[in-house]
Specification:
alpha/beta, Rossmann fold, Molybdenum Cofactor Biosythetic Enzyme, Chain A, 2 domains, 13-stranded mixed β-sheet, three-stranded antiparallel β-sheet, 15 helices, 18 strands, 31% helix, 19% strand, disordered C terminus, binds nicotinamide-adenine-dinucleotide, binds 4-hydroxy-L-threonine-5-monophosphate, carbohydrate metabolism, oxidoreductase, transferase
Length: 476
């Protein structure tokens, strides 16, 4: 499935911070697209395109349609079946669906032929590999998206663990720092209960749990098990407790050939990136011409950190950055959610400012959409064309939409999930999931972008460490 240098990857993510995370971890020259229609530009061999479907808050039908539309668009652009089916076994019947085309989500509609093809698949030769990124905490319309993504695939191999964030899967259950997802606080801002297993999140997709002991039998044995699961018309949901487990899973999936698709969080994407073996994350790649962070007058543009995430850990991350000399402007959630533009103080060149949502009244999910929209309008109205640090995914997406940014070119990873990208006009944008990063996350990001600006007495990591890729610093 993954031949060095000639495999192209198309990854679909449900939010922007996760899309950037995958783009960095795949270790391929990448484009990060905010609009699936831009998949009409073919993905070159050895490169990847990651699309933010912005589907975290969509209902199931809309999210499934977004997945189908992206599959269809990218398959058409490549001029090849999106499932890579060159077996001649009724190839187009297994191909991507057109947007809105009627097809049952996941039942046993073509289980027999699908299983047959999975068992007999040839190796991949420079074809497109499809990856669906899901939230490591299974938030969003995970099941509907998985079912749509499985349409036309011979087999969907699922492994959602993110060991770098101490989010593993054991016995088919997501454990967050050892606590089952449905028993921890990770879903506190959700309006429904957390699933008790990965299979429950994927329902009604027919799945079979694969225990970690089976994963640790190695790629050959695991591939055999995958074939057995496929022969029963089901999709394997793999336990994984370490990056090594995820490496075995990608290797086993590779043995099945191009009809196999992958679904996972950044953990499985990272394993795939290690397997593809191309440039390590952090090395500059494919930045558009004319990029740079120095303003026309020679001074550095302001650096603006937009902390729109309601994650509890963000307050300490802000405090560490402020202690190093950044200015903090907390914005009350009420006015942000209202119709009027909230106008913060201006940004001077060569300064670091943090905008955050004042959450002292607690998080009210009912106003979340309006708050983030107001925050995005505020950022877009600021003069001075600041470089941006955006956390989490919805915040990042709404701000870039308000600024009219449609494509990012990832150029490096500051710590896991903190991805440095460039816009077409040379602006630096760092995106980061809300729940990622240790207490010094913002400090590390700011130090990477503005090594000279912050207090020399603050505990900044050395510049080389700040710009190097890292699997560390992912915390709850
Ligand atoms: N149900 C909801 O409305 C809701 C709200 C926040 C987070 N979440 C969940 O958490 C995930 C992670 O989000 P994230 O924190 O990484 O960042 P994010 O940028 O993806 O989302 C943050 C959201 O929280 C809102 N928010 C921030 N402070 C708030 C406050 N004081 N009161 C009300 N809303 C506030 C923002 O407006 C934004 O909509 C989301 O993808 C989602 O699954 C859900
Ligand atoms: N990529 C993160 C993960 O897999 O856990 C998450 O989905 C990002 O979403 P937020 O930025 O909304 O936290």
């Amino acid at each position: 499935m993954c031949r060095r240098d000639d495999t192209s990857v198309v990854a679909l993510a449900d939010d922007l911070s996760g899309a950037a995370e995958v783009a960095a971890l795949l270790r391929l020259p990448s484009r990060l697209l905010l609009h699936p229609a831009d998949l009409a530009v073919p993905v070159a061999a050895g490169e990847c395109a990651v699309v933010d479907l912005d589907s975290r808050y969509l209902d199931d039908d809309a999210a499934a349609d977004a997945v189908r539309a992206a599959l269809a668009g990218a398959g058409a652009a490549a001029g090849t079946p999106a499932d890579g089916d060159d077996t001649g076994s009724g190839a187009r019947a297994g191909g991507p669906r057109r947007p809105g085309a009627a097809r049952p989500h996941s039942g046993r509609y073509d289980d027999d032929s699908r299983a047959f093809r999975a068992v007999n698949f040839p190796p991949m030769h420079g074809r497109t590999l499809w990856y669906k990124k899901c939230d490591s905490l299974l938030r969003g319309p995970v099941g509907a998206e998985a079912a749509a993504f499985a349409e036309g695939a011979e087999l969907l191999v699922v492994a959602t663990a993110l060991p770098a964030a101490r989010r593993v899967v054991r016995g088919g259950v997501v454990l967050v720092d050892g606590v089952p997802l449905h028993e921890c606080a990770a879903w506190r801002a959700e309006e429904r209960a957390a699933p008790r297993s990965v299979a429950e999140a994927l329902a009604p997709l027919p799945t079979t749990d694969v225990p970690v002991e089976a994963v640790r039998q190695g790629p050959l044995a695991l591939a055999g098990l995958f074939r057995e699961v496929a022969a029963r018309g089901r999709h394997p949901v793999c336990d994984a407790e370490s990056d090594a487990d995820l490496t075995v899973i990608t290797a086993a999936a590779a043995l099945l050939g191009p009809g196999t698709r992958l679904l996972g969080s950044g953990g499985l994407a990272s394993a795939l990136g290690r397997r593809l073996g191309l440039p390590a994350p952090g090395s500059p790649q494919a930045a558009p011409a004319g990029t740079g962070t120095t303003a026309a007058g020679g001074s550095e543009p302001p650096l603006l950190v937009v902390a729109g995430s309601a994650e509890p850990g963000v307050a300490q991350q802000v405090a560490r950055l402020v202690a190093a000399g950044a200015r903090h402007v907390p914005l009350a959630s009420g006015p942000l959610a209202g119709p009027d533009l909230v106008v913060p103080p201006g940004l001077a060149p060569g300064t670091v400012t943090v905008l955050s949502v004042d959450g002292s009244d607690g998080v009210r999910p009912g106003s979340a959409r309006r708050i983030v929209a107001g925050l995005a309008r505020t950022v877009a109205a600021l003069p001075g064309r600041p470089d941006l640090v955006l956390t989490g995914g919805e915040t990042a997406r709404r701000v870039l939409d308000a600024l009219g940014v449609t494509t990012l070119w990832p150029v490096g990873e500051i710590h896991h999930g903190a991805v440095h990208s460039r816009t077409a006009d040379g602006r630096s944008v760092v995106t980061r999931p809300g729940s990622f990063g240790g207490p010094d996350s913002f400090l590390r990001i700011a130090a990477a972008l503005r090594p000279r600006l912050l207090s020399s007495s603050s505990p900044l990591p050395p510049a080389s460490a700040a710009t190097a890729p890292s699997q560390q610093g992912v915390t709850q």
